[in-house]
């Protein structure tokens, strides 16, 4: 039997709850909201990167880390409902349709992203730039892991 981490298990639960939640949001809005969520997380990643490369402002890093964790823990699976595997009118998506057939893998990736983001918050709370740098790298790696498999262009 395969060993499943707690965060992956929680992500599976989140995905099954997501099926209910996604029914309440129009497919084109699911695409719109998930793109907005990842763009917002990306903006916050950029702020942390700038802090690590220049003057470290602990309050700004904490705020950014919390924003990223909020996105990662928000149950994003709800925004990958049926019909959202390709563009709907003007609402484009870079998701690869294969993502919708690999639930277990996606749950693991989503769980890793949430776990890494939660560690980033803990590191940011310490105010230790070196700890933030390490945790930030792990969050970036969790973003990349999903992009490598499931993001086109
Ligand atoms: C970011 C950002 C991403 C990820 C990815 C990591 O800061 O916007 O999409 O990190 O580039 O490889």
Describe the structure.
By secondary structure, this protein is an all-alpha fold. Helix content is 69%, strand content 0%. The chain has one domain (6-150): Up-down Bundle (Four Helix Bundle (Hemerythrin (Met), subunit A)), CATH 1.20.120.10. The protein has helices at 6-22, 27-53, 58-72, 103-126, 129-150. α3 (58-72) packs antiparallel against α4. Ascorbic acid is lined by residues 42, 45, 140, 143-144.
Strand content: under 5%
CATH homologous superfamily title = Cytochrome c/b562
Parts with pLDDT < 50 across at least 5 consecutive residues: none
Q: What is bound: which ligands? A: ascorbic acid
Number of strands: 0
Question: Structural class of the secondary elements?
Answer: mainly alpha
Order of helices and strands: HHHHH
The oligomeric state of the chains shown is: single chain
The CATH architecture name reads: Up-down Bundle
State the CATH topology: Four Helix Bundle (Hemerythrin (Met), subunit A)
